[in-house]
Structure formats: structure tokens, C-alpha cells
Amino acid sequence: MIKPTILIVDDNTKSLALFKLHLEKIGLTIENATNGVDAMIKFQRLTPDIVITNLVLPKLDGLTLVKLIKGLNPCCEVIVFTAKRSIKMAVAAMKAGAFDFLLKPVEPKYLETVVRYCLRDLELKKKMRSGCDQNEDITNLSPDTIKTMYTRLRKMEIEEEFKGHALTPREVTVAELVLMGRTDQEASNTLCISLHTAKKHVQNIFRKVGVQSRIELISKFQ
Predict the structure, then answer these.
(1) Which helix (H) or strand (E) holds 41?
(2) Chain-wide mean pLDDT for the chain?
(3) How far is the C-alpha of 218 from the C-alpha of 196, rounded, in Å?
(4) Quick one: pLDDT at residue 51?
(5) For site-directed labelling of 108, which of 10, 70, 114, 137 has its Cα 20 to 30 A away?
(6) pLDDT by residue (tens digit) across 146-175?
(7) Which CATH class for the 5-124 domain?
(8) How many Cα neighbours within 13 Å face the side chain of 155?
(9) How far apart are CA 11 and CA 80, in angstroms?
(10) CA dihedral 146, 151, 152, 157 (to 10 degrees)
(11) Nearest of 5, 2, 10, 216 to residue 113 by alpha carbon
(12) How far apart are alpha carbons 222 and 112 in whole angstroms?
């Protein structure tokens, strides 16, 4: 089985070494770049599954990097990290197609969790594409159709993952939102339930699955 390849871009060599060491321990192939130009050269040579990049880079900034990468390979996911003062830039990166953004300093364990979730998302998208009629080009499907297919597939995956934990249908739905990184308030708004009820569902999920936090839940089901 081919190991996923991740390209990490940062001009802080200590952070690069720390991230590389941690992610290689979980079986990933890691390549580093210290500036945007070097990153683009390696990107075209390696065709990585994921690019993790600082938004503030020498030679070529991270936002431009996101746009170039998504333009060349829309299937490659990009995770950006930034200081608080660069939040507006991070939002712009998300609009350009970034998968997620993290605030510095980034803890290696949390980065691992986000990477695992991103890889799972990529795998689901591959399954969705392979599940289409072989004579039907997925690029000709409408965005709404693709979204519906992905949502159904994701729900099936979630239900399969939580078999044996005696979750109610509502708890499965809440669990899906938790695995997507949604807060209690966001779950409340999405499902039109009170914040108190959302929090109660989350606590029931933690108890039944045997975890104590969102990070543990996400890590358990990667």
C-alpha cells in the first residue's frame, strides 16, 4: 500500500523538523520546503496528497501557493496555519479552496488529528468518484448532486463506524457534526435544537464511545 505523501512548507526549520518527525511516526511520507517557490517545485515533482503551509512565506506567499496548488490539482488538499494577526488571510485561503486553517503555535498532536481527518475526507471523495457510473464523467455532475452524493456516503460511513456503540439516530447525526469539527452551538443551530440538548447529546456520545473529548473522538474514528 502506498503511503500518503504530505508536503510541509514553513520557513521555520525547527517547526518543519518537529512536524516531520511526528507525522512520519504514523506512517506518512513527509517532504519539506522552506519557501513558496521551492514548495511549487516539489509539489509538481511529488504530487502530494496534502500540502500543509504557513501563510507567511518568503519568495511566494501561502495564499498564492494555495491558489496555484488548487488550480493545478483540485484533488490535493491544503491545510494552512497562521498567526492571529493573519486571520483575514486565512479566511481568504479558505475561500481559495484550503481544507482548514490552524492558529499558531500548532501542536503536533492536533496537526496529526487534522491530517487524519483530511486523509479520511480524501478517501471518501475517491470512493464517491469510483461509485459513479463508469460511463458518467463526474465532472459533468452538478455541484448539488456531488454534494448530495458525498453527504450520503459520509452518513453511511459514520453509521458504520458507530455500530456497536448503541447511539441513537440523533446522536449519530450529532457525532457526524463533531467529527466535522462543529461546536455545540453550531450543532444546535444546524439541527434546530437547544444548546443544552446539543451538549447533552455530545456527552452521551462521549460516554457510549468511551472518550472524554472531541479530539479523542476524532482520533478514535480516523
Answers:
(1) helix 36-46
(2) 81
(3) 22
(4) 95
(5) 70
(6) 555 555 555 666 666 676 788 887 888 888
(7) alpha beta
(8) 11
(9) 14
(10) 130
(11) 216
(12) 10
Task: Give the mean pLDDT of 63-86.
Answer: 85
* Across 18-45, average pLDDT: 92
Average pLDDT over residues 113-136: 71
Q: Is the peptide bond before 105 cis (omega within 30 degrees of 0)?
A: yes
Taking each helix axis from N to C terminus, what angle separates 108-130 and 13-24, rounded to the nearest 10 degrees?
Answer: 60
Residue 29's pLDDT is 92
Q: Where in the chain is the domain with CATH 3.40.50.2300?
A: 5-124, 134-220
Q: To which CATH superfamily is domain 134-220 assigned? A: Response regulator (3.40.50.2300)
- Full DSSP string of 174-222: HHHHHHTT--HHHHHHHHT--HHHHHHHHHHHHHHHT-SSHHHHHHHT-
Please give the helix or strand (H or E) that residue 154 lies within, else none: helix 143-161
Quickly tell me which residue has 446539543 as its cell.
Answer: 198
Strand partners, 6: 30, 50
Q: What angle do CA 186, 189, 195 make, to 5 degrees?
A: 80
pLDDT of amino acid 135: 46
The better pLDDT of the pair 177, 206 is held by 206
At 20, is the secondary structure helix, strand, or coil?
Answer: helix
For the beta carbon of residue 101, count every other beta carbon within 10 angstroms: 21
For residue range 77-90, what is the model confidence (pLDDT) as tens digits?
999 988 766 667 77
